[in-house]
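Side project, low priority. Logging it here so it doesn't get lost.
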Amino acid sequence: MIRAYSLSETFSEEGFNLYREMRRKGITPDPLSFSFVTKCCVKRSSVLEGLQVHARVLRDGHRSDSRLLTTVMDFYSSFKRFDDACKVFDEMSHRDTVAWNVLISCYIRNGRTGDALVVFDMMESGHSGSQPDDVTCLLVLQACTNLGALEFGERVRRYIQEHGYGHLRNLCNALIAMYSRCGCVGKAYQMFKGMPNRDVVSWTAMISGLAIHGHGSEAIDAFREMLRMGVAPDEQTFTGVLSACSHSGLVDEGWTFFDHMTTEFGIMPNIHHYGCMVDLLGRVGLLDQAYQLILSMSFSPDPTMWRTLLGACRIHGHVALGERVIEHLIELKAQEAGDYVLLLNIYSSVGNWEKVIEVRKWMKEKGIQTTPGCSTMEVKGEVHEFVVDDLSHPRKKEIYEMLDEIGKQLKIAGYVAEVTSELHNSGAEEKANRLSYHSEKLAMAFGILATPPGTTIRVAKNLRTCVDCHNFAKMLSGVYNREIIVRDRNRFHCFREGQCSCNDYW
C-alpha cells in the first residue's frame, strides 16, 4: 500500500501516514517499506519527514542496504542537499551502478556538471567497481549537453555502441539533443535519420535543434514532415516550432502555429508557448503587441516572460516599456541582478548616464551582485572554464599574450570595438579595454592557442553574448580561417569566413 501511494502524485501523504500507522501497530518496516515511504516524502516535498525516515533507517540498522541508501541519496539530491547526499554515498559499504548513477544525477542537479564526467571516467576505467549502464549514459549525455562537451559526448556514444545500447530510443534521442546543443546539428540530423523508429521526442529534439541554430524554415519543414508521418505533436513540439519562428523572425508563421495548436490539435497554449510568441514579437520590434499579448493571457505571467520582453526593450531601446516591465518584476518580488543589467543597457543605449549611475548606486546599496559571464570550452576531453578578466587558468600568461596578438591582427583587418556594449560612462579607449577580456574572448584565444590550425572552436557561455564579442568572433573566423561556434543563453552562433549564421539577428 505504501508503494502504491508512493507512485501517486495526489495521495503521497497517505503513504507517510500509513507508514506511521504501521509503526504504531508495532510492525517493523523493512528496507522496502523505508524506500517507498522515502519516495512519498520526495513526492510531497517534505524534507522534515524524510529526515525522520532517514533517522529511523539508521536506528533500525539498515546501514548496509545499498538500494535503500541509494533512495535516501536521491531524496537529499531532490532537495539540493548535495553534501548530505554525498555523505550517504561515502558511508555506503557497497556501491552498485545504481548508486553511482544517483551520484551523477546529484552532481547534475547541483550544477557540478563537470564532476559527473569525472564519475563516468572512474566507472569506465573500473576504479569504481561498477560499469556504466544505459542510465549512466543517459545522465552523462545530459551533462555533456549542458557543458557543450562534444568530445566527451562522442566517447559516450562509442561506449553505447560497444555495449549494445545503440538500439535504445531514449539514448538516440539524448544523442540528438547532445549534438544539437554542442553545435553539430548535422550530426544530430544523421543520428535522427538513422533511427528506425522515431517517436514524438525524436522529432521534437530535431525540431528544437534546428531552431536554436537559426534554421527556422528547416524546423518548420521537419514539423510538417512529422505530421505527414502520422506522429502527433505535443506541447514540447510546439515550443520547438514556435522557438524556430522566433529565432528566424517568422511572425506570420508563428501566429499560424500558435492558433493551430488549439484549433487543430486541441492543445491549449501554456506559458512557454506564450513566451515564444513574446520573444518573436519582441525581436522584430512589435513590443507593444508583445506587451498586450502578455496582458491578454488567462494565467499570470512568470518572471521569465517579463525578462524576455525586457530583453527586447534592450535591443530596441524602449525605455518607458523597460521601466514598466521592471515594475512588474518588482510586483512579483522576482527581480534579479540580470534584470537591472538589462535596464542599464537600455539607459546606456540612449545615453542616459544619469539613470545608469542612479541604478548602479541603488544596486550597490541593496547589495545586488551581477552574475559574471562564464564561458567553457572542451579541449582533448577536458573542459576549461573562463570568467571575465580570468587569472585562474594555468596558461593565463600565454592566453593573454595570444588575445593581445589576436587583437592586433583584427585591428589591422578593420575590427573596431563596439563600445556601446560597455555600461560605464568612460572614454572610448577605456571602454574598449574593458571589453577586451570578456570570457568568450579568453576562451577563443585559448582555442587558437591550444588547437591545431583549422580546428573548429566551440564555446558555451552562460549569458547572452554582447555585440562586441559577436563582432570579434566574426572577424576572428575570417582572419584566422577558423569555424567558431558559440552557444550563448539564447541560441547558437556559427561564425565562418567573417559571417554568422544568425545574420546578426539574435
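Brief comment: Residues 365 and 450 are 43 Å apart (CA to CA).
Revisit when time allows.
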